Amino acid sequence: MKHAIIRNRGWLFLPSRAISTFLFLVYMCTQQCVVHSKVAGLDFGGEYFKVALVKPGKPFEIVTNVHSKRKTETMVAFDGEERLYGADADTIGVRRPHTGYAQIRRFLGSSLDQYGIVSLILEEYYPYSLSTNEKRGSIHIKHEDEKHYHAEEVVAMVFSHVRQITDVFAETDVKDYVITVPEYYTQAQRQAVLDAAELAGLRVLSLINENTAAALQLCIHTTLEPDTPKRVIFYNQGSTSLQVTIAELFSYVVPVGSSSNKTIIGFKVLSKAWNQHLGSSQIDLRLAEHFAREFNEKVLHNKQDVRSLPKVMAKLRAQAKKTKIVLSANEEIPVVMQSLLEDYDLRTTVTRTLLEELCKDLFDQALGPVHEALEKANLTRQDIHEVELIGGGVRVPKVQRLLKEFFNVPELGAHLNGDEAMALGAAFRAANLSNSFRVRPIQMTDTASYGIGATLADVNAEDGKDSSWTKHAPLFTTAHRLGARKAVSLTHTRDMFCTFRYDQSVALPEGVSVFIGRYSISGIEAFYEQHLEKYLGDPKVTLTFLLDSSGIVSIAKAEVSLEEEYQIEVEVPVKKETSTATEDAAEKPKDEADLTEKAEDAETVEKAEKVEEEKVEKVMETRKRTIRSALKVELVEERLGEKRKIGMSILPMSASQKIASVEMLREMDSADNKRKADLDAKNRLEAFVYSARDTLESDDEVIRQVTLPEQVTTVLAQLEAAEEWLYEDGDKAEASEYDAKRSDMKTKLDEILFRVSEKTDFPNAIEDAKRLALSMKAKLSDYAETRPWINEQEQSDARARVEELETYVEDAMAKQKEHPPHETPLFTSANVKKQMQQVKKLIDKLAKKQKPKPVKEANATESASKDGEQVESETEIKTESEMETEIKTESEMETEIKTENETEMETHSETESENESKTEENADGHEDL
Question: Where is the composition biased (Basic and acidic residues) (predicted)?
């Protein structure tokens, strides 16, 4: 056989096609982990977050939350011990402002000295109780005078909700994320985002700047002419800030092989600028204050100032947000807020003109970052080809009008979904960074937001012993791309500190320290003393700095080295004087015509040199080698036993703090899950009580036919008792108690409902059984003529089984009729259907019995030739059973697992062989009997 498996001494030999199939199956099995991988992009906004999911073989999708919304409020609220998120948290935050925490992105990597935090409390009417963590210098959120949370812990709660809704939407666990951050985020803030994600169990592939993510999304869907760059300005006004980025999109063609080309697309960030306090929430605030003033004057007659009431201001902020959205499409809107304070209502009218007057100073600042970005990129407004609007604040008509007038364009760019572009761009970045996906390559070049330098100083200088040695080196400017490395080398003999700091303090957000972080670099002095006796000089210290894709600077590598000379014994060849004489003889000029003699002489010289070179002597040779040692780099958190901030304003979370936070969050998650399970069980019990009572109290005649009055009364009494228990002692019970009560009552109700269903199902099953018996009898009678190969015994057994069914049906009907209807039925529709199934199975078996094939017998024929000679020939014609036996014997040698094509080829081959055999037999003069 062509595809047989050949076994030889324990080895298994497969044909080439079988090997290919096997390797393909192995490949598909190994790819399962890739196929099922999923990543996501998270647009972590100040007011809302959006998540874009990447699944193999499908377009990017925006994740919808529990309310089927494509964006979710970046907020967490505490309702007692329960945590609420999204719209639920927003609702609680309006009713009880001190329990809901919005704008939590501002807390990360910040201190109470920063303007954004002061504004949040004093100017935006958020009643938060914040304090300073003395060890880290970061913000502590005080909740109900009992619990204190790190800012990273509060954000981690929201990130946990992000992961929960994403996993539900993806129907699997999604851990890998790329998270967007504002352009102006400092290293402390970026590190805080990473720490919060770690606490929530998210694996961050990278951070990405918001406008960079939008540029990436635009680059994917933009068709560019080769070598014709396009400069685009991204105007991003979100809830908390205004960010402007100028990017240049490009494409070029590179040859691939000798006959094809490949188009490369990409973009690079030229400049960026921002106003981190000019967000659309400032417009909401101006409207809310206007409402408050009108309410104070027209309703309260200035007897009270509602701006001192957090609950009222929360309501006014919510109304202001709705009003702003409506005024984006309308010139005027009436505003009515019933019972804003006690029984007093707010009734007023707001026009778009009034809104623009209230926010005039804000609109005057709207073009500031645009001018700054153009200046940094050394461009004019005429050099910009497109203006792309992203963020929720750009829907305000005044903002769009200002941009149209400045750039002198009739319309602004609308190529992106301003709400979702950043999430989709982050998702594409995640797919690019993940090993599980193969996506279109795009060259992306982002730059640092701040210039960063490093200051080196002796450890002793920190103690006042020696302050003479310090070195400062600029590392990365705002023109450096993210992902860049820079190495700094110097000679030094003592351990040192390396302090990162921002080079341009004027560009930093107000209240942010210029210090980024301080690291101790140890091992230099020990290395120097170890090799001091060798007199090798001062060691060279090499520090490699990395500005990673998340915008975080670090020491990627630190090592110390010395160069040492040493001697080694080597072998060198020794040549005899005869060799030189031979060379001289070979170099003497001869007659140019005697070419053959010259060639022979040269060959003789080479052989002589080779013989002489085989003799060597040993000499000492001086060489150099480099001795290297890795240095220890640690973040400085304490010095001389005194725990305090050293060289930086905000310390990141330590490993021990992260462990404690993760444990605390797990306990809170466990408590939330238990509360949810208890609530779900309570709701199931409550729904069952109402549904069961409606069923039993209905005017259903069948229920009265299959129950006694006391049976119904007993169940109704249990339902009433359960309802009272739910709203009294059982209000805070556990899920097991709710389920136990529901299970007991459900058992009794199910018995009644079963009798109700059997009231109609059993008679229907009886009728079906009777019809089946008649049908089967007719079939058996027909089989006697149409299927004579079914023997008499088989037909007799089948008839007997049909008669048994008829007897069973008659007996069941009689006994069930005498049985009380309010008790469990003796016979059920399921019993009857089982009997019917057995009969059908037996008849179907007879119907499938195949007609036996006729048996072929061997025969021999004689034929006489025309010249009188007779040739006797005898051919064996195998019976069908003999042929099947041979085929079966051969098939045992075939491959156990074949593809469909191989099987078809074998069948075709066997058919051709049989046809050839028959042709040969007929050619010999034999007849096929």
Answer: 585-613, 864-929
